[in-house]
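BACKBONE GEOMETRY TOKENS:
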Amino acid sequence: MARNVKKKSNNKKPLIKLKNISKVYKLGKGVKVPALCNVSLEIKRGEILAIMGQSGSGKSTLMNLLGFLDRPSGGEYLLHGEDVSGLNDNRLAHLRNREIGFVFQSYNLLSRASAIENVELPLVYARGKDRRQKAVAMLTQLGLGQRLGHKPSELSGGQQQRVAIARALINNPSIILADEPTGNLDSKSGGEIMKILTGLNKKGITIILVTHEEDIAAYADRVIRFVDGKIISTKSNRRQRH
């Protein structure tokens, strides 16, 4: 079992490699529901990957597994060339905090906390006195320097998603998992969020996003489609440039 997972300098290796990953949910009385069926997938460093499929197709289960929010029933998950499949919960939590930033459709912000307090959350156990400065810098970078003290109810949907992105970036992750990041936004705000995500990708961050929208998937380098827990197609894009 792998004990330490370190970032590798060899860019020829995939950032993520899944080998025959399966996930089966047990619903009691011997009822088993397969969510993923022997999924194998490689994700390159610096790639934007879009995952599409109908509800119940397995795409959200895959995202949960990629983000260490759930464990596979079988198969191997390699990150930076190291098998992380058997790591304990504490090690996975550490790895998740260091490697992965999450962006959700519903923003998942604390309603009673200000923008800056929401962004500071991942740093709650960090040592040092620069948590506030880091949060201010991140929000300012995303155009929210004048909204630091505002609560989510005082922000537009696009602004709330920017706060969520700032929170996702605060620990300098190598991967952002974005689950329907534009799903609750109008087309203009959605385009602004995708511009931010593609800009982050240009700086080297790998973006993995779930979407139902073909125009959002067009921002990706590659699109995979799920049906019944299986990848049925993979398509390379001539990605939109903005």
